[in-house]
């Protein structure tokens, strides 16, 4: 039983599973009257409420150390088994396309009750709530952790698909001259891939630990659903590794193109220098301010010099073309 005075504004919503994939919402007074025989209860709490630690310890029987794990803003994934239940902390991604992990989603799971806490609005919580309202959610308590892991995998899959689409777009534009913009986008994608790959690794380790726990106190077949989600996460991790290898290959290709373009520009400058070097040498030699410069007293010397320089330039271009350097 939960007292109404202790919940305050900490409860975001409370749902009781109907055993058929749906759930009914509980108001404040209904929540206080809830009994285990009424059905499996899911309570989602607001992490920003100042009275939340007291609520967790007094009403839900959590020790302070476990409260700190649930409210940890770093969101490090962890699993803490207890005789009366299991504490889980999952890491999720934000809805917006940013490149860092979101604070963790905490879950305190007991035989007839689940208490979830998120530091920010969680798409996993929102989707599970919507599924229950439409009658497509978990039917038994043992299906509840698998349903959360399934939605977490779905969000990972959506983000991975979005990254694949961006990588394919970059692959098509890899020969674009706007290499600096492409390099920036590729760098962001590599950061995101590293973040998502780390989340998948953490989630797989946590699921492995969860499968090693005795969850017979949960009604249903929790290990079966959790094992299915483990296979899903494992496949996603394989796809993520392939994506990271693709990004690495794309980075190498872009670096090779940049090196090729740079060498082409250096080569062009070298060719231009080779063509103009004889003319610069002659004009520099004739430009010294000393006596005895040939042609200084000839009125047509300037035009003769221009003709000579033109012939030298054309001869240099011919020689470069003959050797296939131009």
Question: Which key terms come to mind for this protein?
Answer:
7 strands, 56% helix, 326 residues, 9 helices, Beta Polymerase, domain 2, seven-stranded mixed beta sheet, Methane Monooxygenase Hydroxylase, Chain G, domain 1, alpha+beta
Q: What is the gist of this entry?
A:
The chain has 326 residues and is of the alpha+beta class.
Q: CATH superfamily of the largest domain, called what?
A: CorA soluble domain-like
Order of helices and strands: HEEHEHHEEEEHHHHH
What best-fitting shape do the alpha-carbon axes yield?
A: rod-shaped
Oligomer: single chain
CATH architecture of the largest domain: 2-Layer Sandwich
Largest sheet: 7 strands, mixed
The number of distinct helices, counting runs of at least 4 residues, comes to 9
Q: Give the neighbour order of strands across the main sheet.
A: 2-1-3-7-6-5-4
Using only CA atoms, what is the Rg? 35 Å
Based on DSSP secondary structure assignment, what is the total number of beta strands?
7
Helix content: 55-70%
The overall pLDDT, averaged over residues, is 80
Poorly predicted tracts of residues: 95-99
Give the CATH level 1 class of the largest domain. Answer: Alpha Beta
Distance between the termini: 88 Å
Strand residues, percent:
5-15%
